[in-house]
Please model this.
Amino acid sequence: MKVMIYDTLETGLLHFGEEEEHPFGAVVPPIVQTSLFTYPHFEQRLQGTNPHGYDYSRVSNPTVALAEQKLAYAEGAEAALCFSSGMGAISASILSNVQAGDHIIALETNYPPALQLIRDYLPRFQISHTLIKGTAIEEFERALQPNTRLIYLETPSSMFLHLQDLEAVAQLAKRHSILTICDNSWATPIFQSPIALGIDLVTHSATKYLGGHSDIVAGVVAGAADRIQKIQSFRSMIGSILDPFAAWLLIRGLRTLPVRMERHQRNGLQVAQWLAERPEIERVNHPGLTSHPQHALAQRQMRGYGSLFSIEFHPIEDESIKRFVDSLRLFRIGCSWGGFESLVLGWPMEEPQDGKRRWFVRLFIGLENADDLIHDLEQALETAMGRKE
Ligand SMILES: *Cc1c(COP(=O)(O)O)cnc(C)c1O
Model:
């Protein structure tokens, strides 16, 4: 294949891996929707050398491989693997790298199902863990044990928007021969490159920004070729590769990722800044705001910002919050994020300090016009506060 060097991800994500012409001169690559690849000669099957390079789609598939090439390129990694979900990628990356007697350092604020794997499931196999907040490097140093094998990161975390200093954690981990994994779903390769900062493996829920259209469930892990090969054996065994059609939709999503992220960033900051001025709201947790306690770190290790953030209300009646959420017309109520559509979700939380109940609302800012979204939030706040019917 012709090796092309692209100066930017904008150009590269469109064309990388597709330099050779597709069948019929088609602009878009075909979906190789097949479970099986057969061999011209029995001898080639005996030798395991199919001239086309493929054997069975649980192990590898050309459409999935194209998505993987683009994702490895985007993350600045040697190789990548696609999975049938983000959790498939996370579980395989963790499980293929630990054994009985090992210890994992993870975050209190990790994506809940990932935390469930580490906290509730792995202890059955004598794999222990320490959970930390992770905003200071000293916490990682204190959590180290002689048997620490893995550090599992997510920055910024998708609920509380806490950051970890990737370069500092990577240096600490390397000194102790500990594997580092970072969930990069929030920032995407457009805004953050954990591998360039020394992290070993990067995972994504490609269901979110990478797919970008709320029409697939997919995951990815990227890293050095030898590490990825080990995870590929695990993927074949556990049977969690991505389906070719979903891989094809993921390729389509990746082409517009840079353009979409630019708009998500702009919309997200505009809405977050507007909300920060509202009297009902105590705090806006968005690392792009100067009020965020880790804003300096955010500026140092990211090139831009995703549009998922949370707001904390001043003490407020439950009924008012319900009215607020139900009055929103452009924000749908739902748990995922990263698609074209704006979303809202909320939880009441007891503050450990004063025992007060506070409402915590997570907003995902989609690709709508930001002024439209702000008008919608304004009318919903006015309705919630009983200033408008
Ligand atoms: C959604 C999500 C995941 C899990 O991805 P799935 O595709 O739903 O399995 C992992 N990490 C983060 C930060 C997520 O938001």
